[in-house]
């Protein structure tokens, strides 16, 4: 299954915040949208700010981080994929890099984002379809 199929199923909406947004503002967006991360986009910057970044920031800086720009705490090395990558390829990247969110980017254009939950859901659906086809094949013979 290709990433394009995942985007068709879940949609292409991507929640973003500006690099100048405070950590408190980004945390509020994450909480209210019930998501695990936001993309930090603007001023030629792209990063990801996730729940893990919140935990790391609090451990290193304490509560004062909430009033500081999200750009100070975001993950600035963003690993992305394209619509033509397979879900299996993206899951492999997530596992190797220990990340849970991968933006879908082509020709510099942000097309969506795939989370580990999206990838797992897609792989389960693909596996169930394969199992059903095999069962049908076996019982038809």
Explain the overall architecture.
- The protein is an alpha+beta fold and 141 residues long.
- It has one domain: CBS-domain, CATH 3.10.580.
- The chain contains five helices and five strands.
- It has helices at 3-10, 23-33, 51-61, 87-97, 116-140; strands at 16-17, 37-42, 45-50, 101-106, 109-115.
- The strands form two sheets. A three-stranded mixed beta sheet has the order 1-2-3. A two-stranded antiparallel ribbon has the order 4-5.
- Helix 4 crosses helix 5.
- The radius of gyration is 18 Å and the shape is elongated.
- The model has no long low-confidence stretch (mean pLDDT 93).
CATH fold type = CBS-domain
For the record, the CATH architecture stands as Roll
CATH superfamily: CBS-domain
Roughly what is the average pLDDT, rounded to an integer?
Answer: 93
* Quaternary structure classification: single chain
Sequence of secondary-structure elements: HEHEEHHEEH
Q: Count of helices?
A: 5
